[in-house]
Design goal:
single chain, 472 residues, 2 domains
Length: 472
C-alpha cells in the first residue's frame, strides 16, 4: 500500500531515499531549503554525482511520485512518515553536530496536527531518539499531548557512495528500531517492496531482505558498530601490508587468500592509502566519544584511527625516501575523490596526501575524472587528463581506484615525466606492466619488483581479487 512520505534533507542520503521510495510506489515529498539545489532537484538532477540516481529522479519527478519543495511545514502536514536525513557533521572534539537535527525537531513540533512517525535516517549518537522526543515534548508544552502526536523510529542507512541506489533497493538488511510497535510496523510497510524485492523494472528473482526489528538504542548503535567494523577491516589490511613489506610477502595475495574464508570475507579487506569520506571516520570518532562519556577507553578503535592516519603520511614518507627531497619536486596525484564513482572530497586520502606534499614544498598537479578543480586549495593544480597531470612530474601517486586509470598508456606517461617513481596507493596496477613502461613501481605491502615462480599464489589472486575487492 502506498505511503505518504516526507524526506527532510536532500544530500547524499536524503536524495537517494526520496528517489528510491518514489520508485517503489510511494508518494514522496523531498524537502530542500537551498534554492539552487531545489531548482536542480526539480529538474530531475542530483546536485552531486551518484551512478543511477539521475534517471530515477527524472522518472519519479516526471510521473509525480516525487515532488521537491522548500516548504517543510507543508511537507510535514501532507505526510504520515517523515524521514529526517539532515547532515550531522563531526564537531572538533568528536561527537556529531546535531544543530540541524534540533532545528528540524523544532519545526516538526510546531506543525504536529495529527500523529506522525518521525524516522531518523541521519547517523546520530546512541540516545538521540530519546533526545528528540524530549525536544519535541518541551516545545509542545506537554508530553501527554506530544506523545499522542508523534513516534520516533531509528532506521540507520547503510549506503555506499557510488553504489547508493543499489544499496537502498537491494540492501543486505533493513534495521527498524523503536519502542512503539505500531510506528515500527508503519515503517516496515513502507519498506515492504524492498523487503520482498518487488522492485519495478527488476528482472529475475532475488531472496527477501532480512529485517531487524529492535529498540531505538540498539538500532542507533548498529550503525556505528557496522561502520567501525568496516574501518577496522581496512586498517587491519594496512597493518598486514606493512608487515608484508618487512618480510617480502605480497599483501594482495595474502588478503585474497584469507578473504576466501567465509568467516572473514574479502569486502573492505584492501590495503591502500586508507579510508576516507563522510562516514567511517565520523562514525568511528563518535563511537570513541560515546565510550569516553562512560569512562571507557576503546583501544581497538583508537588503533584503527591511528593506522588509517599513518597510511597517508606513509605515502609522503615513501616519496621523500625515493625522491630524496620533496621541495621543488613535481608530483602527479591520480584521484582526488575519496573513492571511485563519486565526486565527494570529504576526508579524501588523495586530497590529504596532495596537501601534505604541497606543504613540504612539492608542486602537485592532480587529475580526477569527476573533480575538475579544488577551489579552496590553490596549492593543488588540476589537469584535464592523466597525461597532462603527469607532464614533467618526478612521481605519480595513485590515490583513488578509478577503473579509468587502468586504461592509461603507461609508456606515454613515462615519456612525459621527468623521473620514474610510480606509487600505486590503491594496489590496482600490475607491477610488471608498470615496470615494463619504464617506471620504478611501489605499492602498499607489495614487493618493489614483480616476482615469478609463485604460480599457485598468483592463481589464487587471479581468481579471488575481483571477487574480494571492496565495491566502489
Amino acid at each position: 500500500m502506498s505511503k505518504r512520505i516526507a524526506v527532510i534533507g536532500s544530500g547524499y542520503v536524503g536524495t537517494v531515499v526520496a528517489a528510491c521510495f518514489a520508485h517503489v510506489g510511494h508518494r514522496v515529498l523531498g524537502v530542500e531549503t537551498d534554492a539552487r539545489k531545489l531548482a536542480q532537484l526539480r529538474a530531475g538532477k542530483a546536485p552531486f554525482h551518484e551512478p543511477g540516481l539521475d534517471p530515477l529522479l527524472a522518472t519519479t519527478c516526471r510521473n509525480g511520485d516525487l515532488t521537491f519543495t522548500g516548504d517543510l511545514p507543508g511537507a510535514l502536514r501532507a505526510s504520515d512518515i517523515v524521514f529526517v536525513c539532515v547532515g550531522t557533521p563531526p564537531s572538533p572534539d568528536g561527537p556529531p553536530n546535531l544543530s540541524d537535527l534540533a532545528a528540524v525537531a523544532a519545526v516538526i513540533a510546531d506543525n504536529l496536527d495529527r500523529h506522525h512517525v518521525i524516522v531518523t535516517k541521519s547517523t546520530v549518537p546512541v540516545g538521540t531518539g530519546r533526545w528528540l522526543t524530549s525536544l519535541i515534548e518541551d516545545r509542545t508544552n506537554g508530553s501527554a499531548l506530544a506523545g499522542e502526536r508523534f513516534s520516533i523510529v531509528s532506521n540507520p542507512e547503510f549506503l555506499r557512495e557510488g553504489n547508493a541506489v543499489q544499496d537502498f533497493l537491494h540492501p543486505d538488511r533493513v534495521v527498524v528500531g523503536s519502542d512503539d510497535a505500531d510506528a515500527r510496523r508503519l515503517v516496515v510497510e513502507a519498506y515492504r517492496p524492498i523487503l520482498e524485492q518487488a522492485i519495478p523494472g527488476d528482472a529475475g528473482h532475488r531472496d527477501p531482505v532480512p529485517l531487524v526489528l529492535t529498540g531505538l538504542a540498539t538500532a542507533e548503535m548498529t550503525k556505528y558498530a557496522s561502520n567501525s567494523f568496516l574501518a577496522t577491516k581496512v586498517s587491519f589490511a594496512n597493518e598486514i601490508a606493512r608487515l608484508c613489506e618487512f618480510v617480502g610477502a605480497d599483501v594482495t595475495e595474502v588478503l585474497a587468500a584469507i578473504g576466501l574464508d567465509a568467516r572473514i570475507g574479502g569486502r573492505y579487506l584492501d590495503a591502500g592509502v586508507g579510508w576516507g569520506g563522510s562516514c567511517l571516520g565520523k562514525d568511528l570518532a563518535a563511537l570513541v566519544s560515546t565510550a569516553s562519556e562512560y569512562g571507557y577507553h576503546p583501544r581497538l578503535l583508537d588503533a584503527v584511527r591511528a593506522v588509517n592516519e599513518g597510511q597517508r603520511q606513509f605515502v609522503v614518507d615513501e616519496l621523500l625516501r625515493h625522491l630524496k627531497t620533496l621541495r621543488g619536486a613535481r608530483v602527479c596525484v591520480l584521484g582526488l575523490a575519496f573513492k571511485a564513482q563519486t565526486d565527494d572530497l570529504r576526508d579524501s586520502p588523495g586530497l590529504d596526501i596532495a596537501m601534505r606534499l604541497a606543504q613540504r614544498g612539492a608542486f602537485v598537479t592532480a587529475y580526477d575524472p569527476m573533480v575538475a578543480q579544488v577551489p579552496d586549495k590553490p596549492q593543488i593544480r588540476t589537469a584535464g587528463d592523466a597525461l597532462s597531470a603527469a607532464r614533467g612530474a618526478d612521481a605519480v601517486v595513485v590515490a583513488t581506484d578509478w577503473p579509468q586509470f587502468l586504461t592509461i598508456d603507461l609508456a606515454d606517461m613515462r615519456r612525459a615525466m621527468r623521473a620514474d617513481v610510480f606509487f600505486d596507493g590503491r594496489n590496482i596496477f600490475n607491477p610488471n606492466d608498470v615496470q615494463l613502461a619504464g617506471f620504478r613501481y611501489f605499492g602498499i605491502g607489495r614487493p618493489a619488483l614483480a616476482r615469478s615462480g609463485e604460480g599457485a599464489a598468483n592463481r589464487v589472486t587471479a581468481a579471488a581479487l575481483s571477487a574480494t575487492r571492496s565495491p566502489s
